[in-house]
Amino acid sequence: MIVLLATQKPFAPAAVQGIREIVEAAGHTLALLEKYPGEDELKAAVADADALIVRSDKVTAAVLDAAPKLKIVVRAGAGFDNLDLPACTAHGVVAMNTPGQNSNAVAELALGLMIYMARTQFTPATGSELLGKRLGVQAYGNVGRLVGQKAAALGMKICALDPFLSDEQIQAAGAEPVHSVEELYASSDYLSIHIPALPETIGSIGYKLISSMPKGATLVNTARKEVIDEQGLAQALEERADLKYVADVAPDCYGQLREKFGERVFATPKKMGAQTAEANVNAGLAAARQIVGFFETGCTKFKLN
Q1: Which of 71, 93, 168, 171 lies in disulfide reach of 88, CB 3.0 to 4.6 Å?
Q2: Which residues contact 91 (CB under 8 A, 6 or more apart)?
């Protein structure tokens, strides 16, 4: 089988080497496409591929049309909004992600962003401490739980909302259960977002929720920019001079927000939650192992469609 590793933003050399070793040890061939300029190059490369590994690369219906032999695509990472799942299903392609492999890297970044904003972006101005503050976690999955655990070690009080977990499961993972998104926002000094970008979540965090947060609150987004209603965010920041917003994914209106609200707003230059050497390797190797397992035993443990 031909396994195509297609990454506009390449893996670290160590990760590529590890992926190659896993794929070739199983008797398959690894093809490599890195730093390609656009979809046309991906379509050409995928023509002979039986399997595909991507990072944030978009796997569209057009790409799938160009891949008649493709049986599986694995997104090396947790988020999978770059995969057209209905098109994958229509083409008979199994789509997977690699949940948990980037979780620690994202969780550490979320805590780092909280500290950065609490200490006024490391300017000489007087900052504040995280000790004793209430952290709300929206979605208590792999990343959310790690954020909660690390924040608890700093003395924060943790509450969480997750419709897929029972109160007992949330409590066992070290957080106080919260039963509505309105309660979560209204009671959190810091709010860490970990929901995916789905039709029901896109634009779901807007003026009403943000403006309900306690005095001096900070909203932390290491998920997806699409879940934020940017107009509502701007309005809340305009009306509440005590609120702050920090993100690992810059909103479309970031320039205007930064100009208007200064150090109350910050976004990393690029999405960097998973940009650690460890996460880079972990996600790539997991994707390779999942493809090998799929061909050897039919395993579809992390199937998305």
Answers
A1: 93
A2: 64, 65, 67, 70
